[in-house]
TrEMBL record:
Protein name, per record: DUF155 domain-containing protein
Pfam family name, one: DUF155
Domain of life: Eukaryota
Biased composition (Basic and acidic residues): 39-53
Domain called DUF155: residue spans: 146-292
GO cellular component: mitochondrion
Taxonomic lineage of the native organism: Eukaryota, Fungi, Dikarya, Ascomycota, Pezizomycotina
Stretches for region Disordered: 39-62
Record-stated family: Belongs to the RMD1/sif2 family.
InterPro entries in alphabetical order: DUF155, RMD1/Sad1-interacting
GO biological process entries: positive regulation of mitochondrial translation
Amino acid sequence: MICLFRLARPSVAQGARSACAYPPWQTARMLSRTPSYWKKAEQDALPSDDKKAPRTKGQNSLRRVSLEAERSRIVVKGRGKHQFVDPELETKKVAAYCAAEQYDIHTCARLLRADGHTLDPHGTGLYPQVIHIQPTTEPTDDAGDIFIFPSGTVVAWNVPDRTALRLVERVLPPAAINSAPGFVEVEKEDLAFISDPSSARSTIVGDTIILGTAPSGLRDGPSATETDAVFAKIAFSSGLARSTKLAVLERLLDTYFHSTRGIPTALSRGSRLPFAHNPVLRRVAEVLGLGARLPFTRPFILRKTGELLSIRAQLNLYSELTDSLPDLFWDAKHELGLEDYYDVVGRALDVGVRIKGLNEKMDYAQEIAAVMRETLSERHNLRLEWGIIILIFIEVMFEIRRLFKEYREAQDPDSVDELLKRYLRAQQEGR
């Protein structure tokens, strides 16, 4: 029995020695185990910390999905309408600058090349609908992007204000159309954005753009992923540029209303009547138009009418503000969802509501302009009528003077007619 125990494996010698307490047939069964059994026994004898449980492919994929979901929850918290971005995360800025009514896009390209920039570094192929440049040539993750649109708007992603303003105020003014030379008035709007490497889709939560930078699966390679991210930035930039251009028109319309705000009061009261103390004379003055003198002239009315028509044309005719989808998205792949990004920016910034309100304000301004033109026309017609009346009055006075003169001459005995009559009468009597 002792010899048999010596044949046992050293790692289980203690178990074999304890087999002395069992009957001989059980001891023989323990000693007849296969090597695989003893290997399993050795693994069971190891401490729990030294064991390495194998991971299946399914377990690895589940772990990857759980990690991605955890990273997604870090960026966006909450559900539905109560979603919000984690305030502890660091966000970057995307800013839109509008400094011109329109840009000559080909002149912009020439000026940017002369300034040392490379156009369309990711090969989007969207020129001349938009120009894409990067302010730095260093291949870093923090390299910013700048997009120039023909609508006169520049959108900068993760670019310092000093760099963007230099481009807007010093480089691009020669390409501006219908803008006063030497004067640049910049309208600015900005939003926050944050990159989400766990998602291929982008969205807006509150006033923060969630830019999905994960591979979309439509194309292979890291460069394709970067190009898709640039397409998403262009879509968001187009929506933000639309809002900034609308803000410029809102400011112009506010300035217009500020310059014409006294007209309704002037129309309701008119000027002070010269005979206010006498009701009879006041009524006569009103009938004669003496109390309808308003504090604006014909050049003023024509200038304000032209300003209003220019604002309405910029909103409805000369830009893509009222278009449901800009032309640059028609040739883009539908799978990228660029039109959805454009629409979500418009909804987040209330672009549709603002366009409707702007048109309603311009309708009211158009009514004021129409009343001013009618008042000007009535005043002009009134002056013509009074001119005609005065001319007729003068003619009547001359005619009365002639008749009165003839009457006096007829009654004067020493007048020429009387002397001539006497002479003729004397000649007839002398015959």
